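Encode chain A's predicted structure.
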Amino acid sequence: MKPRIAFIKTPDPRNFGEEIINALEKSLSAKGFETITLEPTPENIQEVVDKLFEFKPLFTFDLNLDGVIFAEDEKGTRKPLFDIVGNIHVSWFLEDPMLHYMKLKPVISSNQLLFLNVDVEHAQWLSQLGKNVALLPPGVNPSNIPPAMEKDFDIAFVGPVIDPVIYENTWKERLDEGLFTFAAELGRLIYRNPEMPIRFASGFLISQFNPQFQEVLTKFQQEKDEEFIALLAEIGGYAMNLRRWHILDSVDEFEVNILGEVRGETKENIVVYEDITSLKDITTFLARTKISLLSQPPFLPSSLGITTFYSIASQSLTMVEKKLAAESFFIENQEIVTYHPMDPIEIEGKIAYYLEDAPIEREEIAKNGKNKVFNTHTLYQRGEILGNILEDIIKQVSQEQENSGQEDN
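Encoded structure for chain A:
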């Protein structure tokens, strides 16, 4: 009998989930899995549960733990449905799992979980919590990438972008002086060091304070873990926007089109498209743009996010912060261009070079990058990797059952 996997699709205004699950379902079906996709809502939750019991999947799958269904066991205890049924639940974190801590905490004790991660540091954190992890980088659904298009725009910058002062003013109203200092200093530390993981940076910075304040922060972290994690997420957002605001300030001579939310007063060369937020709309706009200038969230210290892969696939020359991760996926100056986020002269200099001095080179890099994504970084290929992981789990369980049977005899 074919192994069965149920994909749990949940609402996503950016349509990331739609893209990913549709491609993975096709890939795993081609690999010999029997699949079903379910879309739970408050109105149809019992119907979805009934279908799961009828389908009897060996695996359930969701993104960012958004598809976990809870139920009561025979003793009336509230548990994840996969714990009650006994199937393995696979969740693919497309960003730092810390950002989903409120969903992670209620299931952290389960042994029926496999977490897929896009960043090595994420996997290490979850592994330290005793969880089963695997690394699965993002990819694109090639069937939804627009064809080569005329370039109507010079530069696009994918948001959101928020003036860092907004964070600081909010913290001043809400946090005491010590916590405000911690938040602001940690944000600036990550801003200056793009490859420094936020959890490592937090521990390092705490160690630099006096013993009394170290004790206060440690107690806060241990006794109010949800509040502390939420603060770290805010600090990560602050660091991201410190960097993004600085990058945009670096560009004076060219018009920059920001896709998504902008909060704060921008310069005259900035054009904002607040309604372009879905993956499809962003990719289509980038396909009409000569240069895609990206700044990744600090929650991805050693990897590239899904937007980067779609940007490169759109055949827009993609500029992203210089990291080892960028060079491990793409060849610098042949398939992608990197920049140092703290160097404004380099940022605008490279933009000027590829827009004005080297348009043919720009087009060649953009085309090479797109070819690389289509050849090696599609969701169908990621589905092949996922299928291999699940098949290894099946073999391991079968071997354990066989060994157990031999011991009983």
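The longest strand covers residues 88-93.
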